[in-house]
Every structure is written in structure tokens, then in C-alpha cells.
UniProtKB/TrEMBL annotation:
Compositional bias (Basic and acidic residues): 38-47, 106-122
Record-linked PANTHER family: PIGGYBAC TRANSPOSABLE ELEMENT-DERIVED PROTEIN 4
Comp. bias regions, Acidic residues: 1-14
Domain of life of the source: Eukaryota
Pfam families (UniProt xref): DDE_Tnp_1_7
Polar residues composition bias: residue spans: 59-75
Start and end residues of each PiggyBac transposable element-derived protein domain: 146-518
UniProt-recorded name of the protein: PiggyBac transposable element-derived protein domain-containing protein
Amino acid sequence: MESDTEMEDFDSSEEGSNWSDDSYLADEDFSFDYQEGVDPHEDAVKPDEDEAPLLSTLHPDQQRSPSVNLSTKTYSPRKRVPASPSLKSKVPRLSTPRKNSRLPHRTTESDQPWKTEEHPDEGPQPLRFCPSRPPGPQVDPSAMYSPLDLFQMFFTKVTVRTLCDNTNRQAARNIGRGKKFKWIDITVKEFYKFIGLVFFTALVKTRAISDYWITNSIFSIPFPATVMNRDRYRIISWNIHMSDPDEDAVNDSKKGTPEYDRLFRLKPLMNDIRHACMSCFHPHRNLAVDERMVASKARNGLIEYIKSKPTKFGFKIFVLADSSNGYTVDYTVYIGKNTFPVGFGICHDSVMSLVRPSVLGSGYHVYLDNYFSSPKLFKDLFDMKMGACGTMREGRLGFPRSEENALTKKSPRGSLRWIREGSLLFVKWKDAREVSMGTTIHQAYGGETIKRKRKNKDGKWSHESIPVPTPILEYNKNMGGVDLSDQLITYFSAHRKTMKWYRTLFYHFVDIATTNSYIIHKDLCKVNKMQPMTHKEFTQALVAQLCEVSIETQSKPTNTGHTPVPIKPVADKSKRSSAGRKRCELCKKSGHSKDTPWKCNECGIPLCVIPDRNCFHDWHNLEGMAPVEYQSSDS
């Protein structure tokens, strides 16, 4: 029988990562593998009006004619037209350029010189903040919500009912394939208990799932066995399924065609959780878009490798999060270049698909890192009445290339330069290294300074204040929304090793639901001026409510020692000597038939306590008479 419940070592720490004011900029990776910082899926160069048209836009007769002039500069990495064998040497291979070949600059020469902090910048026209709903939890703030109530906003009974139906079908299908296990259809109530045990394993760590059901050992954990036996828990883990297995077969038959959906097995639950994330909470003004990695090494073509991430291998998810609290507002699982149908590049399209005015409203401020940022994206967001700010690679199409008054390697620390092109501001700042920013929200410099250490000529360190652009301070303040969300998820994550790739994302959806539930709990407590539970206390309460048990257990009575007590206490004095009399155990062993109204309070054994026959004393002092729990012959 295959097993997917063996757990990997939990190496995540509950300690939050503290970052300095410039941690995002210091950790930002400004190096890139391709020439001039060009993202082949982002920066497509359009020809000037006076240039010849692209080969793909010519008349069909012209395309077939060998007399077409192919020496015209036509740079379009999105569209490649196969050339005839005789002309292959004249057509550059844009997908795999030579190391010594140089792609054209994707930036524009600006007529403006770079300005310094001494030049005033009026800033862009402020955007009016008009959210579609009041920011915050979309529930009645005066009502009291338990952790289970908040969790069931995401995993509703309808959602769980669908999961149960698909899991039952998958189990029947596995049995039909010859898998040998005993299956009883899972119910909604039992599924909630299963999720409760999943979070219990996140709170109490062991090396393997089977360790939670060890008996007769000092390392035994008694609680899981009171909720569900080991085999039932493992069998449910093996058969969890989010989509209809019959529809999976239909989708699998379409492999190799455009109709094939690579995320078909995720869609039912993924869409339900996305809808719940957007409906249960409306974000505040500052938002962050970033990548999230869900650890996995599955071999299905969806695994990505990002060297700069703590989790280097896994599923890549584009996440929109509230910068103020880390709430996951929306997300999209990356499946390759065809993740989004718009066609302006994955960096541009991923942001535009997450930041939707029809859902959010207008006037939001979106913070991005240099993977997403581009002048075109910032202008498109501003046209949608959305502000944007983020680090930007100088090789992006539209970034100014003016050399007049530009920063140099010898520029002192704290030097800044800026150029404004309408609503879009470009800023360069010299810290430990040069940093480039773009923004449609802020002015270039508002008089802010930060402290940096400086080594004097005598070898001693001192602090000095250097000017810092306003966009950089605001970026460091608001870019950490997704990082905060990741941090909260890792504290008590349901993530574990699985045999099926889609079950890894199932547990991640569970993590999103419980983390967002806790954030809503804190916001509601803040509105009602109440002290919120800690993250650990919230998760513990959720486990107890999912498993339908009390979080508090009755303590075992303290040992008072071996003393004689009445077998049956009665109020009537005339019946005290006869009420509840039982055969004395020591007299029975001696061959006598004597009854007594007394017993040992610790052992529960009936024993005589009279002046001429103190069986109680003799019983507890006889060698080999260990105190054991007494079993009455009447019971």
C-alpha cells in the first residue's frame, strides 16, 4: 500500500524575520541572465513609424517572396517566422542569442537631464481612494465569531461537501484499480475532524504521521486516537481529491491540445478559496504583488526554481496581499507562458489579472519588485486609476538613458537623481549600491533622511544622516505584504510530503484559509477593542472545535494515599454499619467469609478495619500485595 503521509522534517521557525528599513533593497537581486536586463516576455519593441513593417505583418505574397529585404531591424521576441534555408544566416535566433551578440537597447534616450534633490518635484496628481467596499472584514463587527466560524467562511459546508463527494469517487476508483484498503464514505463532519488533526500535526511535531498513534510508550500522544484511528486518517490522506475523477479522465484525454487544463484537478477548491478570500475581506489602500513558492519537487512540469527565494524549488504562485496585515486577497498558480491570455508578458499580465478595479475599486497603491515593474505596467495601472511603486531594472523599455548629470561610481552615498515623465517618476539613489525606482504615487524627495554607519579615518564607526527618496521609504514600508503572509503561514503550516502534486496545493489552500481567518479575527478584535488570541491560541482553539472536543481536559485527582473510606456513604446513622458491605479480599484469600463496609480509597479494595482484625493494615504490608484496581464480583 502506497503512503503519502510520511512527513518531512519541519525546519520552519516560529521566530519572525526582522528586516531593516532598507532590507528589501539590500536583498533585491538586480542581476539578470539576459543582455541589458530584457525580459523576453515583457519588453516587445514596436517599430517606429518610419521603419519597415514587421515580417509577420506583410502581405502573404510578400512573405513568400525571396526578394523581401530581411536586413530591416525588426525586433519582436513574441513572434518568430521560420526562414528558408538560404536565408537562415540573416535571421537572428532571438530565443538563444550568442554570448558575444548584443541585443538592442530596450530603453529610450531622454531629452531631460537627471535632476537632484535640490530641484523641487511637484509630484503626480493624487488619486482619489474609492474602494468598492469598506476596507476590512466583510462581516457583522458586533457579532462574536469563533475560530471555527471564521474558518468555515473559507471551507464552507458546500465546499467540503464537494470535497467529500470527489474523495469518495476517487476512493472507489482506486479500489476498482486494485488498491487494497477498506473504505467508508467520508462525511462533512468527519472531513472537518480530519482537517483538525492536520492542524494538530502542525502544532505538535513528530518525524512521521504514524508516531501520533504510538501506544505503550513514554512518547505516546493520546489525543489523535480519540478522534480517528491511524489507518482511517492515512486512507483519507491517500484519497483526497478536489475534482471529479470522471471529468479528470476527460481532461487528460485532451493532453497536447489547447483545450487541456493543467490545473483542472485544483480548480474546484482553488476557485472557492479565491472567491472566499475576496468576499470575506476587502483590502486597505496599500497592496503588494509578489511571488510565493510552495515547496515541492514533483515532476509534472509546473515546478519552478528561483535562486533568490528561501524555498528554491516548488510551485510558483503570484499573490496579491494587503500590506498592512498580510491578508491574501487573490492569487494565481503559474503554469508557464500561457498562464494569462493577454499577451503583454508574464510580468505585466500577472499584475493586471490580480489588480482589478471591478473588484477592488480605484485609488489603490500597488507595490512591486523589479521582476514585475516596467514603465508600461505603471502607465497602464495609472490609466486604471491605480498607483504603482517599485524597484525597476534599467533595461526595461521606456527607462530613461540620459547621461547628463547621471550617477557615477564615484558619486557619494546618499546621492539621488530623478526624471519625471508626466505621472511616472524615475528615481536613482546611491546607497551601498545604485538603486533604481519607478513610481506614479510619490514625489522624488520630501526631505527624508536615514542613518548609515560610516568608518572614519581613525578606524572608528560613526552614524551619518543621508537623504533618501520618498519612494524608497514607502517601498520598504509597504512591500512586505506577501512576505508577512508567508511568515504567518509557516508558523503552523499544514504542508507535508505527498505522493500527488495537487495534494501539496490542497494543503496550501488550507494554510491560506486558516491564516486569513486569523487575520480577520485580529481585525474584529481591534474594532471591538478586545484582546485577540495569539496565532498559536487561535490554531489550538480551531483544532479543538474542528474535532468537537474541549481544549481543556479534567486534571487527574491528586493521590491522597491509602486510607480506609466507606464503601457506600449514607446519611442514616443506623445503616452505616451495614450499607454497601462487600466481601473482604484478605479474608477471602484466607478462606473466611467476612463482609466489611470499608474499602481503600486508592485501591478500591474492600478490607476489614476492626480492632481484632485489621485486614487493611495487613493487606498493604504483605509482601507481593501490590495495590491494583479492584474489580467487584457484582459488576
